[in-house]
Every structure is written in C-alpha cells, then in structure tokens.
Predict the structure.
Amino acid sequence: MEEQPLLSVRDLVKHFRMPRRNLLRPPDVVRAVDGVSFDIWRGKTLGLVGESGCGKTTTGRTILQLMRATSGSVQFGGTDLCQLSDKELRRFRNGMQIIFQDPYASLDPRMTIGKAIAEPLMIHSICETRAEAMDRVQQLMERVGLNPYFNNRYPHEFSGGQRQRIGIARALAVDPDFVVLDEPVSSLDVSIQAQILNLLQDLQDELELTYLFIAHDLRVVRHISDRIAVMYLGLIVELAQGVEIYDAPLHPYTQALLSAVPWTDPRLARKHQRIILEGEVSSAVNPPSGCRFHPRCPIAEDRCQVESPELREVQPGHWVACHLA
Amino acid sequence: MATDTSSQPEIPLTGGAAPDRKPLLRIHELHTQFETKQGTVRAVDGLSLDLYEGEVLGLVGESGCGKTMTALSIMGLLPGNGQAVAGEINFEGKNLLQCSGEEMKKIRGARIAMVFQEPMTALTPTMTIGRQISEAMEIHLALGREEARERALELLDHVGIPSPRARFDNYIHQFSGGMRQRVMIAIAFSCQPRLLLADEPTTALDVTVQAQILDLIKHLAQEAGMTALFITHDMGIVAGSCDRVAVMYAGRMVEIGPVDDVLLNPRHPYTQGLLGSVPSLESKPGDRLYSISGLPPDLVSLPTGCKFWLRCPLADDRCREDEPELEQYGQSQAACWKVMPPRDVAA
C-alpha cells in the first residue's frame, strides 16, 4: 500500500436541491452523498455496498464528474477532477468509464452494436479511419465473448447477458484505467451473472483495470472486491479488506446487512441468527441527528443521538464510524 | 416428438416429502402453451409436482423456465394468448383446469392466494389499501363492512404496518416498497387460504427488508398451517425459507428433493451450475465462479433429448437423443442420464 492510489476521493459531497414546495420555506435538500472519502489502488477493486438510496450510485457518478460535486475532491492520477472545466475534463474522459446496470437503456436502439462500440473510438480519435475502427471493434467483441459476425445487429436482438458484454466492450474501447461498475450484474440471471463476473475478473487481470464495483448483492461484492466500503444514508460507515468485513463486521449496520445475506448453504442459513432491523432507512432530506443509523440501531446509546461518529481506523486497514465499535 | 405420457413409468413423486403427509395440490403432466407469431411457446412442458400440507416448496429456475407460468396456471390467471392445454391440477377434490370462471373466482383469494413480485402493479392505485383488504373479506367470507374493517386493521397490525388506523385510508403509492409488500401479504392472508403462491415476493426489495418480509411470510404461514409455493431465482432464499426445492429448466422439472439434500448434494448438472454460479461464503475472493455456458433454449423449438444438453459439460449422444425421466437418487429425484457422484460445489 506504499504506492500512490490511482483514485483518491476526499470529503465528497453531493446535494440535490428539490423543487420549492412552499414559497416561505427554503427548498428541501437531498443529502445524497455527505462527505465520503476513500482510495482505490491500481489494479484493485473497491466494492461499494448499501441499500437503495444510500448514495452509492451518486458517488460513482460524481467521481466520474457525470454530476458535479457540491464539494470535496477526486484525485485521479494526481489531478483533482473537481477543479477542471468541462473542456479540460475531456482529456480524462477516456481514462474513466462506466458500465450501467441496464445495458439496454444505455444503448441506442437504432445503432448497430458495431457502430455503438466504434463510436467512442472515433470521438476520442483513437482510430483514424473507419477500417481501423472496425478492426478494433472486432477485437473487442471477441475479447468480451461476442461473435464479431453480429456487429451489424441491433441491441434488441441480443439477450441481457450479451448486451452487458456490449456495454463492457464499449467501455473498454477507449482503454480506460478506471471503470465504475454500477450494479453490472443485478438484472441478469445467475448463470449469466457468473459468466459476466468471470469476464470482468479476466479483463481486470489482463488489462490491470481498477474497479469501483457498486452493488447491493453482498455475495457478488465479496467475490469480486479487494476492499469493501459500506454506505448508509450518504456516509461510509465501515471500510475494510473484503474478507475481514465478512468475518468480523464492526458496525451494527454492517452486521445486520451481512446477517441478511441469503447464503446458499442451508446449514449456514439455519445457524445464522438474522439481525432484523426495525423500520426503514430514514430520509436523506432530514437525516437523523448524531449517528444517522441510531433510530434503527439495536445498541444505540444516548450519545449516538447527538454526536456524529467519525470514520476512524480501529485496526490497520479497518475503518468504522461507530462510537461503540 | 411430443412425449407419450402413457408410457412413462409410474414413479411416486414424493420427491423427499415425509410419507405421512397428504398432498394438498397435485399437478400432473401440466402443459401450458402460448401462441405467438414465432410459433407455439411451450412455457410449461409436462410438469408433475405434489405439494404436501404444511410444507414450503421452493420452485427455482431462471427467467423463462416456466415457474411463474406454473403459478398462473394454478390460479387460472394466464395471459390471453396462454392456455393450459393438457394435464391436471387437483386441489381440494377439483381439477382447477376444468373449473369455470365463476368457480375459480371463489377459489382465488379464498382458498389459494398469491403474492406478486411487484405490488405496484398487483394492487389498485385508486382504492385505499384498507378497502382492498376488506373487499376480499366481504366477498369471500361474507363479512359486513364494519367487521371487515376491524379484521383489516388487525391484519395490517399483524403484518407490521405501523399505526394501521392512520394508514387504512392511504393509497398504495404512499407506501415504501417493503410496506407495499406487507399490504399485499395482508390481502393474501386475509381469507386464510390453504395455499399461498409467492412469486419472487422479495426480488424488488433491499436485503434487510427482504429478510423482514421472508420472515414475515414464513411466520404467518406456520401460524396458519398454510402450504406455500415459493417461486424464486435465488437459491439463497430457498436455503433459508423452504423445506423442499424443485428446480425447473425449459418448462420441466429437472430435480426435486429436500432442501438440504439438493443444495448440499445436487445431482443434476444444471442444479450444480446454478449453485456454483452464486458466490458462497467459503469461496475465496478472486476465485472463478463455476458458470453455465450459453443461453437457455428457445421454447418455440426445443432441442431433442435432454433440454439441457446444449449447455451441459457432460452431454453425450444419449443425452442428445433421449429425454431422461426423473429417477430416485437418495432422498431426491433428478432427470439426468449422467447423475454424478456428489461434488462439493462450494469449493
């Protein structure tokens, strides 16, 4: 870990202002991401987990500057992306790519997939001629397990898994260093999910890719990540080596989340005491005072209602934001 | 060539259920088909399955394997172009496939209830949730309006909706995903049906809410001595919630047995593949997942022989030509010519 991280996120904040509902009151602000910091080293994967609305997707998009941060910094290879103008950012765009959950929604239905994969090659002037671009498209299609013969077909002619392969080919076309994977396998059937996860791992090894893997399935995240960050209501509550977080979770939220994972071993399912959390995630408009998890926390004390816990390193490489951990 | 059902050997399809239990629902050689422009889609293709009183059976398989169509055939709720063309579904002395629309109306909701994946589309957006729960009871249990209202309030409280009196007159869009599913469960349990069909009831929910809802369904079903069919694509849900599991592929059953036996000791290569595709707690990060190559077959033109041979690592000539029937192995049954010695899929 002596080496510089490829990506350093510091105190990243992204607030959304809601439409004003009452002229006399200030508009509501959704605190989607509210001060998130982490590092990702080259060739490694950070898994970002949490439930719907915890801010994981917003974190991914803000890092890529697809949305501009409210405050904070994103150092990518030594440059703070948050300080760059849109024009300056273009130079960095091909270094960072994103793969979405629903590849169908992110592909133009009227563009053949060959053209869709070639598009970034032309835009970033990676290929000079069409012929050169088509050669590269063929290589890419083969690499992600698609038959290059199908380059004249349209997205609707492919299955979900194949479309996700198209999405991957498209992201890889520009030779990125860093890829945000936003729930890349959640809409796929399990057998197809395993094919795509294996492909992503092979590509990472081969091309030394760095991944931010956003997902809610903790089985998948454990499988693919080197380190894992758990988010709750816009904040990271725990961050550690993947295996460590599963073996000895310290934050009560992580403990509850992990106890709910439906492992396929029936012996484990019976042995595991599920921690059933009361209630639901609080609103990101008016997050609870003190620790944001306190209204649902089974061990909360008076202090948790007033004092917001800092993310601190309790063991080497294991960070947790809880007064009681 | 269609399978000749009469020549099949009579196998006791207990699939690992305790012998002293009585079947509540018996599906025999069900064929459900859809007419489309591309041809006849054989969604369910000769499924036989018994559900025993008081058990929770998991029906698993991937999209398009026919698990939802099996449930909709039971309910008599197939979409317009679909029809159960052959077979029997016996429940409480009636063949549901022979029942008239009027008869089915009396069974649906009262004797057999269903919980759907997406409550937003299954519930009426323009009727208060209180009304939707009490309506079912007024129709099926002939309760008066006041009585039904009181029962509905009790039910809302029972499924864990905070302050039921205040929520009674709310509409479904005013609830979160988990709360919507609780409302649908309240409706499903309102008339104390004998059989509950739950079609991916937690797929749209977050993990912690998923655990809450699964526990709730299990608890309520146990309390009422209800029999349940859990349709899911997730072997993890089967592991935590079911007594027996049936695995479907291309409209047929390929394996059935007690959960422990099937999940720890899967016989069919497809079951093994499904289990190996899900990362387990024993797998080391970075390990390759066992993956099934290729895609499920086109249900309009199914291959000859075993429907899985195109994707099966063990297939030989026999698999390509002859279709295997379910055979007994230990406590379970599997339909495969190549049943292998137990393999530790978790490794």
Observations:
- Residues 1-12, 343-347 of chain B have pLDDT under 50 and may be disordered.
